[in-house]
Amino acid sequence: MNKVITLIAALTLSASAFAEVKVDQPYARAVPPGQPNSAAFMSLKNNSDTEISLISASSSVSKVAELHAHTNENGVMKMRQVPQITLKGNQQVELKPGGLHIMLIGLKQNLVKGETIDLRLNFSDGSSESLDISVKDVMSGMGQMKMHNGMQKKAQNQ
Ligand SMILES: [Cu+2]
Predict the structure, then answer these.
(1) Are 122 and 56 in contact (CB under 8 A)?
(2) Sorting pLDDT into bands at 50, 70 and 90, what band is 140?
């Protein structure tokens, strides 16, 4: 299936003019009906010289939004909640499948590809940003690992 088209995110950022953190290409993972959880991803860029942390998030589509990280423990990908996602001065941090993400726990509705959901980010400097983010098909961590292995095989054959 062609995933390229889904890369064209419908970005409708309504960031505050005072926000020091720039949010780029935010999106949420489409999940089939009945799935209790999903996740949101994006790129965060700290445009100030001082450290700012993403300290919490919320969305009307889920009961809770938690900040999560993935760690690889002996080849097993594990997910854990982190208290914050720290952006050093002028640092850019990627939230992406298999890495840092915003976990949407206790979904109140289906997340359907092509739709838009709200997401609010709260930062340690007291600023917050309300985003409308698009829902896209995202491969699961498992799918990614399979693809990775496949690519390695291909490289060896060349
Ligand atoms: Cu998670």
Answers:
(1) yes
(2) low
Q: How far is the CA of 28 from the centre of ligand 1 (A)?
A: 12
Other beta carbons within 10 angstroms of residue 142's beta carbon come to 10
> What rounded mean pLDDT belongs to the chain?
83
Residue with tokens 């589509």: 61
Exposure string for 52-87, b = 16+ CB within 10 A, e = fewer: bbbbbbbbebbeebbbbebeeeeeeeeeeeeeebeb
Residues 136/30, Cβ–Cβ less than 8 Å: yes
User: What does the pLDDT average to over 101-121?
Assistant: 96
Task: Give residue 152 CA to ligand 1 midpoint distance, Å.
Answer: 26
The β-bridge partners of 111 are 31
The CATH code of domain 4-157 reads 2.60.40.1890
Q: pLDDT, tens digit, for every residue of 68-108? A: 999 888 888 899 999 999 999 999 999 999 999 999 999 99
Q: 155 alpha carbon to ligand 1 midpoint, in Å?
A: 31
